[in-house]
Amino acid sequence: MPDDVPVADVLDELIDVLAAAPCGTREIDVRIDYGLGVMLSGRADLAGTLIREGISWQTVSEVIDSRVPAYSTSLDAAVEGENVIFAIRSDKRGKWGALHRARCGREVLVWAATEPLARRLAALEGRRVDAAFERSQRIDDPMPRPRTADAVLGTGTGGHGDWKILF
Fold this sequence. Notes:
The chain has one domain (7-140). It is built from six helices and three strands. It has helices at 7-20, 26-40, 46-52, 57-67, 115-140, 149-153, and strands at 84-90, 95-101, 107-112. A three-stranded antiparallel beta sheet has the order 1-2-3. A hairpin with a 4-residue loop joins strand 1 and strand 2. The longest helix has 26 residues, at 115-140. It is globular. It starts with 6 loop residues before the first helix and ends in a 14-residue tail after the last helix. Mean pLDDT is 81; it is low at 143-160.
């Protein structure tokens, strides 16, 4: 993923990968780690740095493999901000569901092939929901103007207050 890729595209790509995955893999784990760590959080790109220094991909792969959590296969390898409050296996769907509560309060329910994939997918969808909510707040709610004493008290030339503070 190039450096100039928008955050929304990084999330969309990760979400698509997890939603379509039949099972967890180390490749998915590395993609999650890279997408969330390097692309979204600005962490240093260790693999890119090592490769630019002439280190073989085999060595780089071993270094990365030893530090990347098993996001797609372990229930314990939660991503930052993961807030799954419920997980369930649906025999009818043949999938696992995970319910994530986003920071903005919305509930996000997703389905994936395994419980770890569903949990990570729910957390990523939750990030997308929070990002959309934050964008809507910036667009819908312009910065409020500073409040003057007259506006707060309902006094002054345009005030219609029915009370005053007397000192």
